[in-house]
Structure formats: structure tokens, C-alpha cells
Amino acid sequence: MKVLFNADDFGLTKGITDGIIKSHLHGVVQSTTMMMNGRAVDYAVQQAKKLPNLNVGVHLVLTWGKPISNSVSGLLDRDGYFKYTNTFREMEPPDPDDVEKEWRAQIEAFLQKGLPLHHIDSHHHIHGWEPLNETVRKLATEYGVPVRRVDSLQSHPGILLTDKLWLDFYGDGVGENVFDELKKIDAPSVEVMTHPAFVDKELKAVSSYAEKRQEELNILCRLKVPDWVELADSE
Asked: Per its Swiss-Prot or TrEMBL entry, what cofactor is needed (predicted)?
């Protein structure tokens, strides 16, 4: 089985970025995805350029912070922040043209930093929202990169990063039995979503998921890879 440990939220804060870097250098994390409207993007880019074996993609955002592009007022609240939240499925879908404009701007902003684009996923898995599926497929095809697997895109396996996505390494599911659980999955390839970080005031100010990130970091740096696992993208 090929297993890809991906760390979300690269560039959101310095503590998150440093946690991801440690989990790569001293743990099992092989890739990460960057929030281009995060608070530590420039720092994350500088660090990523020192780490040629860390694959970096874009963590498309529609549910946190402010946009990269202009003239997407339909996506925003009156204060200029994205109006969508992690309960977006209960909200009226956005104009796909506005979403494409903003997500294209986020991808282009990433590419302008001089990093190769590894893959695409999204904050709160909003790229799996059915009204945005066509937009996601269009961007993945145009930029020639795979997308994190979500159920709504399973009929398009050619653009998916892995055959399965394992979300249980999160919250109460964080533990050292990762490989025991993965062994139960019947699939050639699996992505494990992770959120390692050093917890600081800045992290607590931007995310309700804070203390568990330090626990994730500690475990990701202790895991021993069994011989039946091939870490994806490893040499």
C-alpha cells in the first residue's frame, strides 16, 4: 500500500509551518498544502525552498480569511472576509465563476513563489461541494495536478491524488495506531490528512483546532513505518 501523509494549513501561522517542517524532517509527512491567504506564507515559502523533498500544493480557501483576488464580493461578508464557514453545505452555493477566479488567483499566487505545484486540496474540504465540482475538475486539468479524493469526485479517478482519503487522524482519533487502521483499508493508495503544529497564541487566534495539533506532531515524529507500507513520493 502506498501511503501519503499530507499536512494541511502550511503558511497559516509560523507555529503551524514549523510543526509541519519538523514532521517532515523528523517524521512521516511527505507533503503539505499551503493557504495562500495565511499569515506566514512568505516564511513558509522560504522554508519550503530549503526542503526539496517536501512536496507542496495549494490548500484552496473559501472558508477563512480574505480573498487573494478582487471583485469577488459575492463570496464575502460586509467586512471583506469569506462568508462561508465549515457549515457551507447549509448555505446557498456561490457563483462558480467567482470561485474559479479566486481559486485561480490562489494557484497563480503560489506558482509565482517559484515552487512546483504538487496537488490541490481545500480548507474544510470545500472542493468536494457538489456545486464546485466542475470548477475543481477544470483547474486540476488545466494545471495538470491531482486533487485530494472526495466522494463527489470519485467518478473522475484520473484526477484524484489517491484511491482513498483517511480522515481519522484528527481530534479524538489522533493516536499511534495509524498503520493498524490503514491495514484494514482495501486500496492501493491512501492519503492520511494531518495537522501538526507548535501551539502558540497566533494558532489559537485563527483555529479552534489547536492543542491536538501538538499531539499530532509528536506522534508523526514517532511513527515507525511497517514494511508493507510504501511512503508515496519516496525515493
From this structure: Mg(2+)
Vertex 58 angle, CA 55 and 63, to 5° = 145
* 200, 207 Cβ separation under 8 angstroms: no
pLDDT tens digits for range 181-201? 999 999 999 999 999 999 999
The residue written with cell numbers 514517532 in the block is: 222
Range of the domain at 87: 2-231
Here the cell at position 231 is: 511512503
* CA nearest to 31, candidates 23, 41, 42, 39: 23
pTM, whole model, 2 decimals?
A: 0.96
Query: For 221, which DSSP code?
Result: T
Report helix, strand or coil for 8.
strand
Tell me the three cell numbers of residue 53: 523533498
3-state secondary structure of 116: coil
Query: What's the confidence (pLDDT) of residue 232?
Result: 83
Q: What is the CATH number of the domain that holds 215?
A: 3.20.20.370
